[in-house]
Amino acid sequence: MAKIIRWGILGTGKIAHTFSTALKSLPQAEIVAVGSRTQASAEKFADVFDIRQRYSSYEALVNDADVDIIYVSTPHTLHHENSLLALNAGKHVLCEKPLGLNSRQVEEMITTAKEKKRFFMEAMRMYFYPAIQKAKSLVESGAIGTPRMLQADFGFSATFDPQSRLFNPQLGGGALLDIGIYPLAFAQLFFGKPMHLSGEAILGKTGVDEQITITAQYAGEETAVLCATLRANTESAAIISGSQGYLRIHREFWRPEKISIISGRNLTEELLEFPISGNGMEYEAQHVIDCLTSGKTQSDMMSWQVSRDLMAMMDTLRAQWGLRYPGEK
Known about the structure:
alpha/beta, Dihydrodipicolinate Reductase, domain 2, eight-stranded mixed sheet, 9 helices, 33% helix
């Protein structure tokens, strides 16, 4: 009989609802507890997902002996604190992206996971979609020849609210950490860590980056142009160009259902479709379950080093823009 992985949900916001919905569809997953800052919030969330244990503190949640793994879904500025709380309590952790605000925080989290011998992973769900896995396989197999260039963008026109997580520097707001991380991670999946990285940012009224453009050059002489904005609706698509064709990942490249291969002498297009199961977070959750049942402490697909490199890139860009978050160390 397959082992059941018992989950505790730390935080009760929108992404926690989406992830919990995905968990409920997986036969090897059981949500046994939820923790919030208030009892009312924990009760409301637990009623939706039929969760037995409802805690009014994160400390109580991570000390529940029936919980195997904690899903951290709080705002960016709390990921470091909340993940360390869970790891130090002996729990495995899946933490929403970004892992923290900077490399110092990420390194402390990884060091703690290593010391405690606990599984720890950044929740970069994009990597686990079937269409993304197929795109990577196609590029590696030479379907477009030698890959040379990559373009990706992610943007939407957000209503300005200085107190919202998107615009509030106290919450780690801005385009980079929230959505710019996806184009960066997408390029990283195909080309690795860049040798040269530069970016331009438009800082808004609250001081956070509202629109960014990033250029990168990689060891194999590949280049990438990556954009993210909170000020405009974009196609949110990606293209990987090679010596014999190109690959288009259609709208919402970070959770795609369609990819096109354009190749051959006449650049003939072949459309491949990958309907998403559920809300899409099932793929990531199942990967974590597989890792835990195999006794792994980190993912082969979203390793600790991948998270280190990703955060280092964002540190580099923020340094270029002179962007620091309040209280950042």
